Every structure is written in C-alpha cells, then in structure tokens.
Amino acid sequence: MSRLLVCPPDYFRIEYEINPWMRVSNQADPERASAQWHDLMTVLEDRVGALLERMQPVSGVPDMVFTANAGVVDGRRAVPSRFRHPERQREEQYFEAWFREHGYQVTLLEESLYFEGAGDLLGFPDAWFGGYRQRSDIRAYSRLSEILQREIIPVELVDSHFYHLDTCFCPLSGGELLYYPTAFDPYAQAVIINRISEDRRLVVPRPEALRFACNAVCVGKHVVLPTGCPETVTMLEARGYEPHPLPLDEFMKAGGSAKCLALALD
Ligand code: ARG
C-alpha cells in the first residue's frame, strides 16, 4: 500500500509567474481543473490502489495543490520545504503543520537554504538524487544527507522548463529511470549514466518531456502520467508497466502534472 498526500484544487489559479509555463493571462479553468484532479484521485485510489491523505486547501496559496513540494518524508521523519519564491513561501507553515499534526518527526532546514521537497529530491532505495540551481540549493543536499543519513547525488538542472527534478527524472519501481537527459548539465548527465546502467535508462523524447511525460507517479507496476506521450507509454509497456494516461493540462498551465500533485509518504 502506498500513501500519498494530496490537496484539492479549490483555490488553484495562475496568480503569478515563477516558471516559463505560467502566464497569468492563460488562466486555469476551475471546473476543468477540479474534474482533472478528481479523475486523477479516482485512478490513484481505484486502479493503482494508493491510500490518499487529503489536506485542507487554503485560499491565497494557489500552488498548494502541488504537494510534492511540501517537503520530503523518510520513514517517520519529515523535512519541510523552504521555497525560493516568496509567492510559495506562504505554503511552508501549512505543510509543516500537516507533518506535525500527523505525528512526523519534523526537522527544519535553516532559513537561508532553499529546498523544494520531493519535487527536487527523488531516488531509488540505494541512491537519491537532488536537483539544484533552479529552485533548491546544492548546499541543501549536504545538510539533508546528514539529516536523513543517505547518500544524495546532486544533479544540476539547466533548462528553465524543467525547473524541478520531477519534471525530467522519474525513478520507476523496477529500478529503471525515465528521464530527459538534456535538462541536466553535462556533468550530471555523466553521473546519471555512471550510476544507472544503460538497460535501465529510458530516455523520453523532447516533445513528450515538454508534455511532462517524466512527471509520472509510479506505484508498483502502475504509472500515472499525462496524456499525449505515446512513445513513453510504449517504452513503459515494453518493460511490463501499466501506464494510465490522464488529461492534466489545466495543471500544466502552472508547470505541473501528475507527480507534482502527490507527495509519497512511504
Ligand atoms: N507553479 C508551481 C511552481 O512553479 C508548480 C510546481 C510543480 N511542482 C513540482 N513538483 N514540479 O513552483
């Protein structure tokens, strides 16, 4: 059983522009966003078998729907995010309160250290990767490595369309990596090649990376991803996964898709 933290999109809007996908003039349609979010929840619960923990949405923090950025959870420990942009810093108190109210042992990072949670920190059981430069700071990972007692490999993100690690890097349950290499600087690309053997690397083509193919939720053999990524679906099926493509374009207007909308709690 996989537990995921989610937050209903009651107050989801495009109120500011902090990544290249966001245009205040390209407003989200609240009814479509709500329908897309509820369909995602139905698939996660009924098809994937995930257990959903729903947070109370808060007015005035429109990006709180992207719970992947709440922080990172490892066992009973939670490290809440420290957002780079003031627009999202207002969410920190609600995520921290949720972790405390649900019995997590909360460790806070110093205020000067930007870290955007599971949006930037992802991995396999033996090795975690931390995306930095666009949002999280590289320095956050040496601190997180101490706190979590894990090896964290920092990887630099160089394309502003792929500003969080989870927009271009998706570890799968069988040990494969679905990813878009060009989002990383040459050194990070080499590090990934060095750590993940060739037969485990599934490279997403640029048009599908730009449709958020890598922003997928993988639970067991199920992979929930946005629609419009046929080559990715074929690659996943060839490896024995069951892809569940869903329309999530209202959330793409904010620069997010399936994976951003859920935080893995275990
Ligand atoms: N508008 C949000 C931001 O720019 C989207 C966050 C998407 N979350 C993610 N984990 N990639 O911060």
Q: What do you see in this structure?
A:
The chain is α/β, with parallel strands linked by helices and 266 residues long. The protein has a single domain, classed as L-arginine/glycine Amidinotransferase, Chain A (5-stranded Propeller), CATH 3.75.10. It is built from eight helices and 15 strands. The chain has helices spanning 30-47, 86-89, 92-101, 138-148, 186-195, 206-209, 230-238, 249-252, and strands spanning 3-6, 51-54, 71-74, 77-80, 105-106, 121-123, 128-132, 152-156, 169-171, 177-179, 201-203, 217-219, 222-226, 242-246, 263-264. The strands form five sheets. A three-stranded mixed beta sheet has the order 2-1-15, covered by helices on one side. The longest helix is centred in the N-terminal third of the chain and has 18 residues, at 30-47. The protein is globular and about 45 Å long.
List the helices and strands and how they pair.
Layout (H helix, E strand, L loop, with lengths): L2 E4 L23 H18 L3 E4 L16 E4 L2 E4 L5 H4 L2 H10 L3 E2 L14 E3 L4 E5 L5 H11 L3 E5 L12 E3 L5 E3 L6 H10 L5 E3 L2 H4 L7 E3 L2 E5 L3 H9 L3 E5 L2 H4 L10 E2 L2
Parallel strand pairs: 1-2, 4-5, 7-8, 10-11, 13-14
Antiparallel strand pairs: 1-15, 3-4, 6-7, 9-10, 12-13
The structure holds arginine.
